[in-house]
Amino acid sequence: MNSDAAMDIAIVGGGIIGICAAACLAEAGRNVTVFDRTGICEETSSGNAAAFAFSDVLPMAHKGMIRQLPKWLADPLGPLSIPPAYLPKLLPWLIRFWRAGAPEKYEAGLVAQAGMMKLAEAEWMALLDHSGTRGMLREDGSLELYESEAEFRASLPGWAARQRFGIGFRHVEGEELARLQPGLSPRFVKGTFVPGWKTVADPKLLGKAVWIYAQTKGARFERARIERVAADQDGATLTLADGTTRQARHLVVAAGAWSHLLARQLGDRIPLEAERGYNTTLPKAAFDVKRQLVFSGHGFVITPLETGLRVGGAVELGGIERPPNYARSKALLQKAQKFLPGLDAAGGREWMGFRPSLPDSLPVIGRAPGSRAVVYAFGHGHLGLTQAAATGRLIRDLVLGQTPPIDLAPFSPQRF
């Protein structure tokens, strides 16, 4: 294919990040083609916990988590596990993760994440309105739960950090706790209610609806596995699994947990790891959950969806090739039954997805060092759905040569 036949913008990845980037670029009048091996929102973006976690500004590597790591790792079905055979490969990432918890790096990461979240909320509300999907938004708040006074006190520095950025919350107990979520186990002595926390009716349905909007603006989809990418200053070449090639003036890499493999082909080594997350989606009638419940001491949440009750979370740092270990989703479900004693755990659908995670909890958003034609948009960890519309806006600004609304230096592909 000669350069005259080159497409304008190719996006590799049909998850929520790629879809939002496509919608923003198509709104700006650009011709966009999204490539994905399975479809629109069929992989990690389909089974997440459905939260717009705009108040979740704390980096994962904060001191509390570092302190809990040994205890968590001792439990193979606990909030965090690492298959022993994978540990040698993971070690460099873990060292970077540990270093990211240093006080000066923690503060910089917190400020960057807070700025990103402010933009994320504004951009999502605008995109929901443009795409006619505002009806999928739920504004019920979230309830974080504590099993002891000690656990509650340990959470207070994190809430103080959020308060600095204007995030509202209130600590609750007794009757107010019971009113916010009837039927809780008495083991929970306190909670924190975040009224501004939002969820969506179903993340897969939202993603597909945003894509339909992008299509009305001219965005196209091609189902294909991208085997290789190459780029110079004038554009990019994509080689598909069937051996054919596509030329594009601009390439956006938004392939989630596989993105670093494509970046490496372009000469960029980015320390991305896959956090394998597990869940079970129960029938809607399993329990009357009023809002997203957060069990941070156990690393999981319960979310009421339009399509069921999703019990999931936890982290397994095990790469993208190992088969799923569904004992982890079963362990979460057993805990959920203890925490909500009336929960009917029958009829669930198990799932595992790959969260693309970088050691400092910030995504990579920026131009590839070797080519102005390539833009990276990946590594959002637990916050892909939350930050997708903001990332789409930032990608549009980069491609169009406009000044982004936030400083992109903390998200640079060259920061590692």
Automatic annotation (TrEMBL):
Keywords: Oxidoreductase. Gene3D superfamilies: D-Amino Acid Oxidase, subunit A, domain 2 (3.30.9.10), FAD/NAD(P)-binding domain (3.50.50.60). InterPro entries: FAD-dep_OxRdtase, FAD/NAD-bd_sf. It comes from the Bacteria. Coiled coil: none annotated. Residues 8-398 form the FAD dependent oxidoreductase domain. Its EC number is 1.-.-.-. GO terms for molecular function: oxidoreductase activity. It is an enzyme of class 1 (oxidoreductase). This is NAD(P)/FAD-dependent oxidoreductase. It comes from Mesorhizobium calcicola.
